[in-house]
Amino acid sequence: MSDSPVDQIIASHEASGRYVDVDGLRTFALDYGAGEAVLCLHGVPTSSYLFRKMLRSLESQGLRGLSVDLPGLGLSDRPEDFDYTFRGFARFLHRATEVLGLERYHLVVHDIGGAIGLALAAEHPARIRSLTILNMFYDVVNFKKPLPMRPFELPVLGEAELMTLQHPTWYLLFKAMGVSHIEDLPKEEVYAYVDLLKRADGGKAFLKIMRHFDHSQQLQDLLHRAVDQPPYPVQAIWGVEDPALDFEHFGKMVQQAAHLPQVHQLPSKHFFPEEMGPEIARLVAGLVARTQPLT
Questions:
Q1: Total structural domains in the chain?
Q2: Is the Cβ–Cβ distance between 41 and 107 less than 8 Å?
Q3: Range of the domain at 114
Q4: How many whole angstroms separate alpha carbon 288 and alpha carbon 295?
Q5: Which InterPro entries match (predicted)?
Q6: Residue 3 has what pLDDT?
Q7: End-to-end CA distance of the chain
Q8: Residue 294: inside a domain
Q9: Other beta carbons less than 10 A from residue 6's beta carbon
Q10: In 3D, which of 129, 87, 90 has the Cα closest to residue 107?
Q11: Of 89, 125, 123, 105, whose CA–CA distance to 222 is shortest?
Q12: What is the predicted pLDDT for the residue at 1?
């Protein structure tokens, strides 16, 4: 094992979680605390690592905080033949909740985890105790990826762009789009995102995900069903300094779709669970406290 600080950070992250078998896929999961379960769904190009601090804050609130690395990302398997679509991921996560023993759970979604999680909630509404939406795109039919992510859609150009994504370039991207106070984060913790993205396959599975975005009306109808007067409470929390999924367009679209009187606004950018974990956890715990007790 390498003794580099980044490798040590990843090793510590791995040691804090566990592996479960989900239909033959070795799947990495963080699972902290006890109490009502809160499942946090990551997007791209991240993994459960994004939620590592926030889950500890949920634990301190008396909750069980969980996050699963989606296939192709983080420490989970990266099979060649997996269905790397939003609905494919939703089906996988439903099975993962069964393996993890989550009969009913609170759901937190972020980035493409939004489309995945809303599809999951629409198809299994009786299992959802509450829904918290973090920065995501709701209009899947018309969504266009932010400029820094568009090259990954294209053959050859995507592979070339991925090769340029190294520690220094990722750090600059994370500073510009990810968090508002990167000076508070050790550089090695930021670098770990790149190593967790690439791992053994060099990021090939990530490229498959980026090339399989679902823009169908069928998926849009599922997302609508998940937020339009569902049988569970919904809230939205937005990093309002996000230059990619800005509040004025994307946040207000979620607010309107879910009929929310307000959206909680936090002073951060797209990957704000990294620096605003305690604040997000408190708002999630507040929604959990307002749900009907489990019987």
A1: 1
A2: yes
A3: 5-289
A4: 15
A5: AB_hydrolase_1, AB_hydrolase_fold, AB_hydrolase_sf, Epox_hydrolase-like
A6: 79
A7: 47
A8: no
A9: 20
A10: 129
A11: 123
A12: 47
In a domain, 112, yes or no: yes
Per-position DSSP letters for 94-105, written without gaps between them: HHHHHHTT-SSE
Place of tokens 């007067």: 229
**Which 3 state secondary structure label does DSSP give 202?**
coil
Tokens of 237: 């929390």
- Note the pTM of the prediction, 2 decimals: 0.96
CB 87 within 8 A of CB 124: no
Give the DSSP H or E segment for 237: strand 234-239
Which of 37, 52, 23, 84 shows the shortest CA–CA distance to 210?
84
Residue 101 makes CB contacts below 8 A (sequence gap 6+) with none
Q: Which DSSP letter does residue 294 get?
A: P
Give the per-residue pLDDT at 148: 86
Q: Residues with Cβ < 8 Å from 272, sequence gap 6 or more?
A: 134, 135, 179, 239, 242, 266, 280
Place of tokens 């989970």: 76
Q: What is the CATH number of the domain that holds 198?
A: 3.40.50.1820
Residue 295 counted as domain residue:
no
pLDDT along the chain (295 residues), means of 10: 86 98 98 97 98 98 98 97 97 98 98 98 98 98 93 94 95 97 97 96 96 97 98 98 97 98 98 98 97 76
H or E segment at 68?
Answer: strand 64-68
The SS3 call for residue 20 is strand
For residue 196, being part of any structural domain is answered with: yes
DSSP E strand boundaries for 33-72? 37-41, 64-68
Tokens of 283: 């708002």
Taken in order 236, 109, 241, 280, the sign of the CA dihedral is: positive
